Amino acid sequence: MKKTKENATQFEAGQRSRLEGLREHLARRTRKVESDLARAESGAEIDSEEQAVERENDEVLSALSGEGRDQLELIEAALARLDAATYGLCATCNRPIGRSRLEALPYATTCITCSKKQGG
Question: What is the pLDDT of residue 43?
Fold first, then answer.
């Protein structure tokens, strides 16, 4: 029993470190994308063909920024679950989420069974 608890604690410590690293990476990327988007919005006048390309680029940057913010929220929630000692429990059935799922998706909120039932 002691060995299992020790392994779980080590796993959670590793996941915390991984989540914090992801959070920092995404925060930097999101700031860069938002900075690029702000710079593009304040750009000089350009011809209509360039405007079309710029508009497409702005849409891509906007989508990347939104995705980054969404992932940051998921990461923050996972870190909060670690603090609350509920990390690794399925939000739907309250059973443990498989370690391999958490390794693949460290901010997963549901076990693979519940995820499949929800269409995920």
Answer: 56
